[in-house]
Description:
mainly alpha
Amino acid sequence: MKCRSCGRKNAWQSEFCSGCGKPLEAQVEPPAPTAPGTGAESWRWNIIWLLVALAVVALLCIYAFQPSGKFKGAPSPAPPVTQQP
């Protein structure tokens, strides 16, 4: 914490300035540092990426298993049989 009178840096829990002795303003305890990628925000991104990956897999499965009949080894349909008089 910085003293407003002399500008000296003091420990955050100090009540008086170690340079000039004037009382320091009370401050809220600093928040505990958190590791990056933790918390609710990272879970949201993980869920979004999981949904995107599932959508891609689903589209690939739909494309791969659709019956189009255009495979190289697929036999061509037989011509219609007509009766002759």
